[in-house]
Design goal:
The protein is α+β, with helices and mostly antiparallel strands and 64 residues long. Helices cover 23% and strands 19% of the residues. It contains two helices and four strands. The radius of gyration is 11 Å and the shape is globular. 17% of the residues are buried. The structure holds iron/sulfur cluster (SF4).
């Protein structure tokens, strides 16, 4: 699964990490880091993260 976080939009709210900590991690500077690989069975969690992101900064590139 290919996930893109638009860092220009991201406001470091952290909701993505809250709902999908396996995929999203905020460092001490509030920058979002993604897991190197994201298995398909986490797709629902990533979709949830994208839907709760207040900045609409998360995109799943290969979503059909
Ligand atoms: S929820 Fe959205 S705005 Fe907040 S840290 Fe994650 S990507 Fe950034």
């Amino acid at each position: 699964m290919k996930i893109v976080v638009d860092r220009d939009l991201c406001e470091s709210h952290g909701q993505c990490e809250y709902v999908a900590a396996e995929v999203f991690h905020l460092d001490d500077d509030g920058e979002v880091h993604l897991a190197a690989t994201v298995p398909e069975d986490l797709r629902a969690k990533v979709q949830l993260a994208a839907s709760v992101c207040p900045a609409l900064a998360i995109r799943i590139e290969d979503e059909s």
